Every structure is written in C-alpha cells, then in structure tokens.
C-alpha cells in the first residue's frame, strides 16, 4: 500500500502533462508544416508530374494524349540524344577527375601554409566563384575565350597560336570543362580543408621520425584518412557534371552545330524550343536512371578504397 501512493501520483502527473505534450506535438507539427508543404509543392509533385507527362505527347499548350512508353522508345533511337549523351560523358571525363585533383592539390597546399591569415585569404578567393552569379561569370569567360580574347593574347605572347576555343568542335568541350573546374573547385577545396584539419598531426610527426618523405606521408596517411571526403567530392562532382547546363548554354549554346550539346541542354531545347514536353520529360527520366546507376556503381566500389574505420 505504501508503494501504491507514488504510483498513483506518477500516473496523475502523466495525465496532467499529457495535454501539454499534445500541445507541444501540435506546435512541432505546425513548425515543420511549411517546409513539408514546400517539399511537396516544389519537389515531390513536380517529380510525379514529370513522370506522368513523360507518358504523354504534351506540347505545353495542347491537350496531352497518353502514348505510354513511346517517348522512351524514341529516346533510345534518337541520334541527337545519343550524341548529347556522348558529349556529356566526354565532359564528365574531362571535368570530374581534373576538378577533384585540382581541389585536393590546392587544399593540401592551403592547409600547409604557416600563416593563418593566408589560409583565410586563399579559402575566400577560391570559393568566390561558387557564390558568384554563374551566368555573369560565364559571359566574362566568353569574352576571355574569344578568338581575340585575353587567353589567346597571352598565348600569342608565348609564341603559341591559340585556337577558336568556343568555335571549334575539338576545343569547345575542353574549354567548358576548364571553366567549370575553375568555378566549382571551391566547394571541393572547402570540404578537403575541413577533412585535412581532422587528421592528427602526431601521425605526420611519427612518419617524419621514421624517415617518410612528404609524398609517402600523403599517400599512406593523408589520403586514407580523407578518403571518405574524396568519395563525397567525387560523387558531388559527378552529379553536377552529368547535369551540366548553364555553362554550356551561355558559353556555346551547344555549338558549333551540336558539338557541345549535353543531355541537360538537349532536354531544355526539346522542351522550350521544340515544345515537346512529354519527350523532354522522358529524356530527363532516362538521365536520372543513368545518374542513379552510376551512383549505385560508385557506392558498391567505394568499399575497395574508402576507409571509414579511420574517420
């Protein structure tokens, strides 16, 4: 009987506080409601709508007619879509490895600077292109890469005849890749710097006492320790490269001819130039399938070289 009184008191206290808990739960639901509605309105519903549109021949203004998988079949036999995919893959091979390597190299260099204010300055300088309006920066690079632009002028001083960067089918994709690496390397640098800061300094001191050279310390200490970040930067770079649109649109508009038309640009032109919304949606879903497939492939292979145990 003596133990029954505290139990009754505790039960009564729970009953008294239950309305307060319900009020807190209601308040929490109200707080997350705007973001939930935003995700539904601007992410989930558009994705579902694009899937439905891909099964129609909708042109934007006309009445949509259900055509099933006809758009997907047409995309698989579309030579322009195949050409755009090949251009995208070439761009990926040019931009992704180069961007990751340059970001890592610059991050290691900045991390080894003795003066803290210098590290801050270079972090800011390299990250500025990321927060600058992409179209404005691309227009600036369009001027720099013109036949009589600053880049060819400098090459001329060195005795090198510069090509028509944006007007030559052989040079336009490398030029776009260089611009994209310059613009996007800041993100990788910041991520790598954060990862490098977490590597214990005593590991380097022990390696130095053992006579390890700087490259050996980087290979056997730094690289394994920051391998999860390398994987993250690689994934983010691949996602961005497969969806490259703004740089190609502003710098070359897919030209000359279709020599720099990527999948994203081809989807845009199909939808808003030729007004084939259904076909463009099907192309977008095929690009998503390719992207997901590459991500799954990366995820399965990352266990061979990514060391999470040392994080």
From TrEMBL:
UniProt-recorded name of the protein: Multiple sugar transport system permease protein
Subcellular location: Cell membrane
UniProt keyword Membrane present: yes
Family classification: Belongs to the binding-protein-dependent transport system permease family.
Lyase as UniProt keyword: no
Domain ABC transmembrane type-1: 85-296
Transmembrane segments: 25-49, 89-113, 125-151, 171-199, 220-245, 277-297
Domain of life per record: Bacteria
Topology within the bilayer: Multi-pass membrane protein
InterPro entries: ABC_transporter_permease, MetI-like, MetI-like_sf
GO cellular component, one term: plasma membrane
Keywords linked to the UniProt accession: Cell membrane, Membrane, Sugar transport, Transmembrane, Transmembrane helix, Transport
Cross-referenced SUPFAM superfamilies: MetI-like
Classification of source organism: Bacteria, Thermotogati, Deinococcota, Deinococci, Deinococcales
PROSITE patterns: ABC_TM1
GO biological process: transmembrane transport
Organism for this UniProt entry: Deinococcus humi
């Amino acid at each position: 009987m003596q133990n029954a009184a505290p139990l009754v008191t505790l039960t009564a206290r729970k009953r008294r506080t239950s309305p307060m808990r319900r009020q807190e739960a209601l308040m929490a639901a109200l707080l997350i409601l705007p973001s939930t509605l935003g995700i539904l309105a601007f992410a989930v519903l558009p994705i579902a709508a694009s899937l439905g549109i891909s099964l129609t021949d909708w042109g934007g203004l006309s009445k949509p007619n259900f055509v099933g998988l006809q758009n997907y079949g047409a995309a698989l036999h579309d030579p322009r879509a195949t050409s755009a995919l090949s251009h995208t893959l070439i761009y990926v091979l040019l931009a992704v490895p180069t961007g990751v390597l340059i970001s890592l190299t610059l991050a290691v260099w900045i991390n080894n600077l003795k003066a803290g204010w210098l590290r801050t300055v270079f972090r800011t300088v390299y990250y500025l292109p990321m927060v600058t309006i992409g179209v404005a920066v691309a227009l600036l690079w369009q001027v720099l890469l013109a036949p009589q632009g600053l880049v060819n002028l400098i090459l001329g001083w060195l005795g090198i005849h510069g090509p028509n960067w944006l007007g030559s089918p052989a040079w336009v994709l490398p030029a776009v890749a260089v611009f994209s690496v310059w613009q996007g390397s800041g993100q990788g640098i910041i991520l790598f710097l954060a990862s490098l800061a977490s590597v214990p300094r005593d590991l380097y001191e022990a390696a130095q006492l053992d006579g390890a050279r700087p490259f050996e310390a980087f290979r056997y200490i730094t690289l394994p320790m920051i391998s999860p970040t390398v994987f993250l930067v690689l994934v983010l770079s691949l996602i961005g490269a497969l969806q490259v649109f703004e740089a190609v649109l502003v710098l070359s508009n897919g030209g000359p001819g279709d020599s720099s038309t990527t999948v994203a640009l081809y989807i845009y032109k199909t939808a808003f130039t030729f007004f084939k919304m259904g076909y463009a949606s099907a192309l977008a879903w095929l690009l998503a399938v390719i992207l997901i497939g590459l991500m799954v492939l990366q995820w399965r292979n990352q266990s061979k070289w990514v060391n999470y145990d040392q994080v």
